[in-house]
Amino acid sequence: MRKRTISSVSSYLFSSTSIPCSMRRLISTLVLGEHKGGIVKPSCLSAISAAGSICNDNSISILLAGSGPSLQKAASHAASSHPSLSQVLVADNDLLTHPLAETWADLVHFVQQKEKYSYIITSSSSFGKNILPRAAALLNVSPITDVIEISDPKVFTRPIYAGNALSTVRYNGLDPCMLTVRATSFATPTLSLKESNSTFAAISQVDLSEFTQETFGKSKWIKKSSPNTERPDLVNARVVVTGGRGLKSAENFKLLETLAGKLDAAVGATRAAVDAGFVANDLQVGQTGKIVAPELYIAFGVSGAIQHLAGMRDSKIIVAINKDSDAPIFQVADYGLVGDLFDVIPELLEKLPVD
Ligand SMILES: Cc1cc2nc3c(=O)[nH]c(=O)nc-3n(C[C@H](O)[C@H](O)[C@H](O)COP(=O)(O)OP(=O)(O)OC[C@H]3O[C@@H](n4cnc5c(N)ncnc54)[C@H](O)[C@@H]3O)c2cc1C
Q1: CATH entry 3.40.50.620 includes domain 6-205
Q2: What letters, b where the CB count within 10 A reaches 16 and e where it falls short, cover 254-281?
Q3: For 279-294, how does the pLDDT look when each residue is reduced to its tens digit (9 = 90+)?
């Protein structure tokens, strides 16, 4: 069973107080925000926390793009979601209805030309990793990705070799310094009762009169094809149930779907399960998949290869079910059960209350 290391706990609980005040300077930061259904995603709130840890007396703006009422609703939500935020910039345009990376990168470039931020930060989600490096290329700077700790406004720590080593780097480039940050390393704020009724940031609309298909966005959105699912989003879910090659077939993964339904959980998978065609690759957790850190991570038939652990080892509680008592997953698990998942899952389904 695992023992949490001081470094992983301290990075999890990292807060703005870790940078001495003398090292802080007046800077302006833009956070590129992600939202869905009128709600700003928790990973963005972590990115704002990261911005606040660079300098908490600065000006932090969040850029929300999209179109229509759900964007305006997300702007109101953002304005009251994080005490470190001072401004919500709303980019409302039909070209931005879908998060098309090329167009959004153009938007970041466009806003930066006008506002000259010192930092541009977003979360290390698929969204952030798709857009920020493109925007960095347009701005001719080199981004730093997957930041887990900010110990000085220009010094950043990021995992390398599938999380087996940490690399600390100093940014010596021109402004803006562009970062993607791991949501799991920067806590979202817990608002007091008074704060939860407050508005922290002013909302302003970005003037997009020059933003047209002719000048921005070489790509045009055609359509999205994805299975409709009511399951919580894998990266932001509080509970994740993951299946590995031990599940043996796509049919058997339906057992996990049923279990996930009872636990209001997201379903994840190992690369071996994805490669075997059991599930779609957007469920893959790990070095080349999604990075998750839910409150509860339950792994069925997962061996615990380092590339998989790189995507889930920061989960608060890890439960592993494997028939091999020597499986490496047990070294990181808080609770382990040596057993056959085809016995364990039906038993769990039977014992969990009917929804
Ligand atoms: C560059 C690179 C990047 C990679 N990126 C990723 C990544 O992002 N994510 C990822 O997951 N992997 C990744 N991998 C692959 C990784 O190395 C492993 O091959 C993969 O994670 C193994 O998946 P698995 O645990 O499902 O399969 P296996 O290693 O085959 O393990 C299956 C486990 O199921 C158990 N089992 C079998 N039957 C049962 C049963 N009935 N009941 C209970 N337990 C059972 C077995 O004991 C075994 O431990 C990457 C590899 C490389 C080289």
Answers
A1: yes
A2: ebbeebbeebebbbbbbbbbbebebbee
A3: 999 999 999 999 898 9
For ligand 1, pick from 287, 343, 348 the residue to mutate: most ligand atoms within 8 Å of CB.
287
Ligand 1 atom closest to Cα of residue 344: 42
Ligand 1 atom 9: the closest Cα is on which residue?
A: 286
Q: Supply 113's token pair.
A: 């030309």
Q: What is the pTM of this model?
A: 0.77
- Residue pLDDT, tens place only, 124-183: 988 999 999 999 999 999 999 999 999 999 999 999 887 778 999 999 999 999 999 998
Ligand 1 pocket residue status of 341, Cβ below 6 Å: yes
Total length of the chain: 355
Establish whether 134 is an annotated binding residue: no
pLDDT recorded at residue 121: 98
* pLDDT score, position 3: 39
SS3 130: helix
Among candidate residues 328, 323, 232, the one with its CA nearest the CA of residue 283: 232
Cβ–ligand 1 distance for 343 under 6 Å, the answer no
Q: Is the CB of 336 under 6 A from ligand 1?
A: no
Residue 59 in marked binding region:
no
CB atoms within 10 A of CB 85: 27
CATH 3.40.50.300 given to domain 239-351: no
Q: What is the position in ligand 1's atom list of the atom closest to the CA of 285?
A: 9
Residue ranges of domains in the chain:
6-205, 239-351
Grouping H, G, I as helix, E, B as strand and the rest as coil, residue 17 is helix
Nearest-atom number in ligand 1 for the CA of 289 is 8
Q: Is 246 in the pocket of ligand 1 (CB under 6 A)?
A: yes
